[in-house]
Amino acid sequence: MTTPDPYQLLPDLDAAEFTALKADVALRGVLVAVEVDDAGAVLDGHHRLRAWAELREEGVKVPDYPRVVRRFDDEEDKVAHVLALNLARRHLGAEQRARLVADLRTRGWSNRRIAAVLGVDEITVRRDVKEAGATNVAPGKVVGADGRSYPAERPKAPPSIVVASARDEGRARSALTVLGEAAPGRLLGLTRAEGQAREAHLAQRRQDAVAAVTNGPLWRIEHIDFRELEVDDQSVDAIICDPPYNDEAIPLWSELSAFAARVLKPGHPIAAYCGHLRQPETMARLGEQLEFVWVGATVLRGRHTKVHVRKVNGWHRPWLVYSAGPYQPRGWIHDTLMAEGRGEKDLTDHPWRQAEGPFRDLVRMLTFPSELVVDPFVGQGTTAAAAVAEGRRFLGCDRDPAAVSLTVERLEAQDGQSPQAKEAP
Description:
The chain is of the alpha/beta class. It has helices at residues 15-28, 46-57, 75-87, 94-106, 111-118, 122-132, 166-179, 190-205, 250-263, 279-286, 356-366, 382-389, 401-417, and strands spanning 34-37, 42-44, 67-70, 142-143, 149-150, 160-163, 187-188, 213-215, 219-223, 238-241, 269-273, 291-299, 305-307, 312-314, 316-323, 336-338, 372-375, 393-398. The protein starts with 14 loop residues before the first helix and ends in an 8-residue tail after the last helix.
């Protein structure tokens, strides 16, 4: 059976059936999701998509259709999935069945597997194959206990993401492409799939070696734990950072308090983003060797953090200001900042990447030009980029090689766009 689309395996709807479908789509929209693979090829929903497209061309206002994006390990599993979706909905006549049998044999399916999928006996399948002159070569994907090869009867569930727009379909396809074989064989939410894709990208970057120290005109990045970073006592004008928020990282806040108390100039500040649920603990630990100054908030646009355990939809990220000894104000602090954008991240971004605008605000409020800003957890270099853009010197470190390489790439690209060239810290 030859069709314009390799995955439109069953016969087209007749004219009356398609007219009825089109009328329903015009009235209620596309109710059953159109399925595509990670390359964008339509697997299921050809007629729904055709009806939707024709209505749009005719000027009928129909909403965008829902999508399910799936990834398959091989072509055979993809074809099996398409058949599983369609055979339950369509009744095949003898001629239509024979065409489908011939097509599946050409694709390498065994008689036994075709019979099981179509719900007929193998004699019927062999007759259809013989009449169509189709090849009789079985795929041999599975090795049984007897040592012989057999076709797989039940392909594993494909990784799948349900989305509601063309934009999100593109995001889902990209996430599945980045995940590749690491994609779990189940239904994923788009946000979680993108998060897993970013983690997979970081894992890949961690396999590449990074320099122990990299210098730029205004900056220095070290691949080292901040507790081992060599910084002169009372030499830093401000620490601006975004430490980890998880439970395992809570002890780091005590270490950060000790580090800041040692390296900050007397009365100078540290500003640190923190998590909502662990804010009391992080404040207590920062206060072990520092003095409390203020609590600020960065208002987030777009997608927000849902704290299900408290049933709170978080629209802001808190940041804490402490100082080494009694605080010496050097200018006004505006305690409510607005994040630019809507929280968008590329799949190659660090999962913790923050909007740069609020960090540039913090740099301007807490330091003067040419002063030294330090970040002990560079992540993807948001503080670094903000400090350099505002004409400050910067020193940062991270023990994660992926974070170091991302930050260095970002700063080197930024240096290429900037005429500034001053002495590195």
